[in-house]
Amino acid sequence: MPTLLSPNEIQARLDTLPDWTLEGKSIQMILTFKDFIEAIAYINKVVEPAETAGHHPDISISYNRVTISLTTHDAGGLTQQDFAMAKTLSALS
């Protein structure tokens, strides 16, 4: 099982990911697109890297706004896996 990160480790990693914020035991990124079609196109880009990593984000969409949340559910909080996936997903936007 992945190791939980300490609050200091979490903050240090967040400092390198300006689009992400800490929300409880998750990190979150909110993206706004031109329209629904572009928002769905982004979500479709998320599928392959998430499947490859075996680490799947929680995703919500409201018209042109996509919210991505990451946490390692089986570890009960944030691990290096979450930050690795966040870096990958940031590069897609």
Describe this structure in words.
With 93 residues, the protein is α+β, with helices and mostly antiparallel strands. It has a single domain, classed as Gyrase A, domain 2 (2-Layer Sandwich). It has three helices and four strands, in the order αββαββα. It has helices spanning 7-14, 36-53, 80-92, and strands at residues 20-23, 26-32, 58-62, 65-70. It has a four-stranded antiparallel sheet with strand order 1-2-4-3, with helices on one face. Strand 1 (20-23) and strand 2 (26-32) form a beta hairpin. The longest helix has 18 residues, at 36-53. The chain is globular. The model has no long low-confidence stretch (mean pLDDT 96).
Structure summary:
The protein has about 90 residues and is α+β, with helices and mostly antiparallel strands. Helix content is about 40%, strand content about 25%.
Note the topology.
Blueprint: H1 7-14, E1 20-23, E2 26-32, H2 36-53, E3 58-62, E4 65-70, H3 80-92
Antiparallel strand pairs: 1-2, 2-4, 3-4
Helix pairs in contact: 2-3
Derived from helix and strand composition plus strand pairing, the structural class reads alpha+beta
Query: What's the mean pLDDT score?
Result: 96
Order of secondary-structure elements: HEEHEEH
Please tell me the CATH architecture by its name. Answer: 2-Layer Sandwich
Q: In CATH's first tier, which class applies?
A: Alpha Beta
Which labels suit this protein?
single chain, 93 residues, alpha+beta, Gyrase A, domain 2, 4-stranded antiparallel beta sheet, 3 helices
